[in-house]
Design a protein that fits this description.
315 residues, Helix Hairpins, alpha/beta, 5-stranded mixed beta sheet, 2 domains, elongated, 9 helices, Nucleotidyltransferase, domain 5, two-stranded antiparallel ribbon
Length: 315
């Protein structure tokens, strides 16, 4: 009987028989781009141009020149890494010239040992993309990109407004006005009414306490005690500026809500509310005070065939 080879030897023998030259070229008309902050390095197949690796600056005219060069050399598919936000203008210009763009995760291209230069990086991307070894990242449509940009801007404004409230609270604490001890939300109606009265010159704690809404749990005596402080002019000046900034942020948030609503309404009908009603909000899902007045998370419009157009905003 023939002796069986150990499993380890059979595995090594099979590895030695692999013909790596037989790898199939998935993207024969490929290019690789190493995206940078000041310049982009582009590599194509050496048989397409005597100078297969070129550098282009980041100006729009240079990006268009790069795209035209790729098209002239017969390139159809381009691979580049999602580096910061530098890839976005490159992606748009290449798509405008009819090129297929693979936006790949930088972690998937770090298999080459050693420190790579910009030239070696774009050539490495070219090799990986030619043999189909890179996965394309999901890219939403232009409509979704627009909504996402507006929603992110709104989130940034909400965060800045929240920071301004914290700074207002800090200034009040420095003046020993313990308003945050009796009000759960300084930016509510009661808190903003009191702060505005303070900025207008009111110092009587009982007059200030009378501005509190009826739903506040703290007693009038505690509220009046919390409003006795050291009215330092420089701190009142700082408080006034924080209040003005807060109102500016609120105005900009409202502007974002209007722009979001316009954009989402322009997308057209999504669901017929008569045949697919949304239903009541689930219990325990209270609307956030930072949510849009007409919630812009989802815009659902009735089709024009119903003879009327109504829009439902759903949180």
């Amino acid at each position: 009987m023939k002796s069986k080879k150990p499993a380890g030897k059979r595995k090594r023998s099979a590895q030695r028989k692999v013909d790596w030259k037989a790898l199939e070229m998935v993207h024969p008309d490929a290019a690789g781009i190493d995206v940078g902050g000041s310049e982009h390095w582009v590599a194509i197949s050496p048989d397409r141009d005597p100078e297969p690796v070129r550098s282009f600056r980041c100006f729009t005219a240079d990006l268009r020149e790069m795209a035209r060069w790729l098209v002239e050399k017969g390139v159809r598919s381009v691979a580049m890494q999602s580096t910061g936000v530098y890839w976005m203008p490159v992606f748009e210009v290449l798509e405008q010239h009819g090129l297929e763009v693979f936006l790949v995760n930088a972690r998937h291209t770090k298999n080459l040992p050693g420190r790579k230069s910009d030239v070696e990086e774009c050539q490495w991307l070219l090799k990986l993309h030619t043999f189909g070894l890179l996965n394309n990242s999901f890219q939403p449509t232009d409509e979704i990109r627009t909504a996402r940009a507006l929603w992110r801007q709104r989130g940034n404004l909400v965060a800045e407004a929240s920071t301004t409230i914290q700074r207002m609270q800090k200034v009040l604490t420095e003046m020993n006005v313990q308003l945050s001890s009796v009000l759960s939300d300084l930016s509510g109606v009661s808190g903003m009414n009191i702060i505005q009265a303070i900025l207008e010159g009111e110092r009587d704690p009982w007059q200030l306490a009378a501005l509190v809404e009826s739903g506040v749990k703290a007693t009038p005596e505690d509220i009046a005690k919390s409003l006795e402080g050291n009215w330092r002019e420089e701190l009142l000046f700082v408080l006034r500026q924080h209040v003005e900034l807060y109102r500016i942020y609120q105005k900009k948030i409202d502007d974002c809500d209007v722009q979001l609503r316009k954009h989402l309404e322009s997308l057209g009908a999504k669901v017929d509310l008569e045949t697919q009603p949304i239903g009541p909000r689930p219990k325990g899902k209270n609307k956030s005070r930072n949510a849009p007045a007409s919630c812009a998370r989802s815009c659902i419009a009735l089709p024009a065939s119903t003879g009327r157009r109504s829009t439902a905003w759903m949180c």
